[in-house]
């Protein structure tokens, strides 16, 4: 939290009062009235893990993890489900939920009448998305460990990695949301998410693709998210992971700056 | 408290606020009176530091909104035109959470919430969600919420628009109490009775400009007569009747459905109308109001 706001202060983005935490507090209170969503966020990756990883995995058997090492299919798919869930949760929070608050509840009109500024709004909402995401990924990791598909203590670092994926997608999602005019526009979000979910080396290794088209997969953010968490959960950590982390970090920071600017343009006219 | 010089707001080619000068002093109730689209809300948003001026100088509580926005907003209370209550929270939580936005400690906002719920007569609804509240209750809650930080300056944009007469009177009573306790009130309205009731001083705005300034009484004395005689004739066009009556009043206004005769003595003028053999459908003699001032200054009515 304070790390996010310290970062935000260091960047050339709109004013805030360093009070984003009060918006997080507001969201936590509102959330207590609608806790059902908490359960759905947890079940999504777990259901995938058992249907695809364990169920379908029984038919598939072991799979090449990329370097010739053969692993259980469930162990291959589990990290991808964790990464995809981090993406989906962050996008849901920063698009649907944010759009509602922006256009219908007009929440920020009253928030910006207080000392809070657009930066506080951006940082507060993204922090909230990350906290929720952290709850889900912790629960998922516990289930995955219990199912025996976690191969290393490095896997603990998959938690901050999932938060990083959340940051990247929430920040960009928030920016995109500020351009949306109606609920129909959200079909474009689905249009971007679904192919990423299916093709980012989530269900099979990158080596399945012909070399000539691998770069297409490699420029998408979810690919880097999946790769990071897979390396960590399989205990397969090399220098390459830094590239993935850098990609997601840059995406998150650029998104944060743009999101705060857009909120300012939209609300402080 | 507020000092604006040549304050201007443009949206693209459209000039919403056109170089206005305004001074608001501590402890007074100051009004912006004008029809919809006169530039009142744009002015209020600039004063509330949520809309940067396009030109001119603006100082609020001695500070510059461009650089001290958060510090100024920390000492303001804002009641927006549309209630922007947090519908995902309860009545009490609305006040608690709002107080937290001002950086107030939890213990303090807890005490404050009880006090403000009492003030807004909402204590019994404290744990209800916001949605089922009546319009008057929501408005009172919005005002209660805006007071959580003990503002020195309270900005109210159309505070009673859309409320029934009873709810308006309850609200006016709350605003009087605030004024007595020393809070400076700045409000916009297109209801002349509201402006007359609440404002010590006001400006009349039209088309982004200030067309008159003073106390309600001064404005009426300066821009209207003591009384007004309203006449309704059985005709679609009242202009021919006006021609026959111009010499009976200082000024005659022709409205689509009636004539207004500006005169010092309404009853005497009514008698004179009858003496000419004219038989209006209805005759009403009344005191001049700010509505008449506005009509005189702009040639239009306030509420269309």
UniProtKB/TrEMBL annotation, chain B:
Pfam family, one: ABC_tran
Biological process, per Gene Ontology: response to antibiotic
Chief site of localization: membrane
Ranges of residues in domain ABC transporter: 2-232
GO cellular component, one term: plasma membrane
InterPro entries: AAA+_ATPase (IPR003593), ABC_transporter-like_ATP-bd (IPR003439), ABC_transporter-like_CS (IPR017871), ABC_transporter_ATP-binding (IPR050763), P-loop_NTPase (IPR027417)
Compartment(s) where it occurs, according to its Swiss-Prot or TrEMBL record: Cell membrane
Topology relative to the membrane: Peripheral membrane protein
Protein name according to UniProt: ABC transporter ATP-binding protein
